[in-house]
Design a protein that fits this description.
The protein contains 14 helices and 18 strands. With 460 residues, the protein is an alpha/beta fold. The strands form five sheets. Strands 1-5-4-2-3-6 form a six-stranded mixed sheet, sandwiched between helices. The protein has a five-stranded mixed sheet with strand order 8-7-9-10-11, with helices on both faces.
Length: 460
């Protein structure tokens, strides 16, 4: 049966297209249409009529559904005049790096990042290794929703295309990672790694060992059915290992290797706000923090802003999503930004969040400063913050829900100038996220619970 679409439908969330394979928008037919739209984007956006052979790199994480999605995309792209370079299983930032280094035209990553193993997704990078612009995403949606239903057999002008295997993809990326530390080696540093059964497996441990660190790693094989059972969203096992091995630090990665969470030598879990504080201060002291400014998102704790301003930094806040962090970095010519969730962009090295780049940079700071991780974060004091995630069946605009609007206004009055409230839909999952922050922990707990109950009643 032919699939029907509405123009107002939205394929892209904050980080590509996601869903459950076999269900919209990741049915076989829809994946074909996504591949076709990419071919058309390349051919027609650059007015290419049989003049150039385009090359796209495709990579994937460890999910069991990824090879089938890859096969459909490869068959579609090569049928419509695009050469494909297969990178196999590598982290998302590795794909971004390879696209730029090899001067390819685009990169496609098959991954649902931190989502459950039963889900998957497709995200795209331009020739500079950056996420596609909103305009390009809208262009893809325009092709699919308005033209593609009627052009299954449309033949664009093309030369016969090929598929190549980039066997050395992991090694290319590994050499880049090692180069970040230049001549510095991590001799004497004990590191624990939790690869979350994802794409950093077989890379993270190898790189740290080549840099002469003593490494203890787990969840480090390609086991897609277990992806994200541990890792950045579940760092408790890493915490236990750090304490057991008396390690200097621990790093927990998500399934596609674009976010990282730290554990210090005392077992304290440190999120992206702490990472921005550590790296921001280091770069400031080294005279390398561009314009003495750090980019964070609305979800970052106010304690980060207070700390950075105290040491002489300015903070720019963006909407949630690493795309917006990158845009702010590029627009203002800055070099450090990130999210509380662990998406950290060190723009001197990367054009997207890179968990391994960040982990190595933290290890470099520890080695150079000769101080424990706990000491580097002791001056930052977070405000009490509550984050509640509520699963929803649909995403209705909040302004169409009067009881919720009234409760938000009441909560804001109660918080006054001593707190703040943020309620939003997740861009990657069927969730509403309620974040309440303030000095009175009991008050923010009560407000978060009240709002969560209203959302659950109306949308759950």
């Amino acid at each position: 049966m032919e699939e029907r679409y509405k123009k107002q439908e939205k394929l892209f969330g904050t980080d590509g297209i996601r869903g459950i394979p076999g269900e919209y928008p990741l049915t076989d037919g829809m994946i074909f249409k996504i591949g076709y739209s990419i071919a058309r984007l390349l051919h027609y956006k650059w007015h290419n009529f049989n003049k150039k052979k385009f090359k796209i790199a495709i990579a994937r994480d460890t999910r069991l559904s990824s090879p089938k999605i890859e096969t459909i995309l490869v068959d579609t792209l090569t049928s419509y005049g695009v050469d494909v370079v297969l990178c196999n299983i590598v982290p998302t930032p590795a794909l971004a790096y390879i696209v730029k280094k090899l001067s390819l035209d685009m990169g496609i990553m098959i991954s649902a990042s931190h989502n459950r193993s039963c889900e998957n997704g497709i995200k795209f990078f331009n020739e500079r290794g950056e996420k596609l612009s909103s305009q390009d995403e809208e262009w893809i949606e325009e092709i699919i929703f308005n033209n593609l239903v009627h052009v299954f057999y449309d033949r664009m002008p093309y030369k016969r295309s090929e598929m190549f295997y980039l066997e050395e993809a992991r090694e290319i990326y590994s050499r880049f990672l090692i180069s970040i530390l230049a001549d510095l080696r991590l001799t004497g540093i004990r590191v624990c790694l939790d690869c979350g059964w994802g794409a950093t497996s077989q890379i993270a441990k190898n790189v740290f060992e080549r840099l002469e660190a003593e490494v203890f790693s787990f969840a480090d094989s390609f086991s897609g059915e277990k992806i994200n059972e541990t890792g950045a969203l579940n760092p408790s096992l890493l915490r236990n290992l750090v304490l057991e091995k008396r390690a200097d630090m621990g790093f927990a990665f998500d399934g596609d290797g674009d976010r990282v969470i730290l554990v210090d030598e005392k077992g304290k879990v440190l999120d992206g706000d702490y990472i921005l504080a550590i790296v921001g201060r280091y770069l400031l002291e080294e005279g390398r923090l561009s314009k003495k400014t750090v980019v964070a998102t609305q979800m970052s704790n106010y304690g980060l802003k207070e700390y950075l301003e105290k040491i002489g930094c300015r903070v720019i806040f963006t909407p949630v999503g690493d795309r917006y962090v990158w845009q702010a970095l590029e627009r203002n010519n800055l070099n450090l930004g990130g999210e509380q969730s662990g998406h950290i962009i060190l723009r001197d090295f990367t054009s997207s969040p890179d968990a391994l780049v960040c982990a190595l940079f933290i290890a470099k700071i520890i080695k150079e400063r000769k101080k424990p991780l706990s000491e580097l974060v002791q001056e930052m004091r977070k405000f009490p913050q509550v984050l509640v995630n509520i699963k929803v069946k649909e995403k209705i605009p909040f302004e169409l829900m009067p009881p919720l609007k009234e409760s938000i206004k009441k909560a804001e009055r109660l918080l006054g100038e001593d707190g703040r409230l943020l309620i939003r839909y997740s861009g990657t999952e069927p969730l509403v996220r309620v974040m309440v922050e303030g000095k009175d922990e009991r008050l923010i707990q009560r407000i978060a619970q009240t709002l969560a109950e209203i959302v659950e009643e109306k949308l759950g």
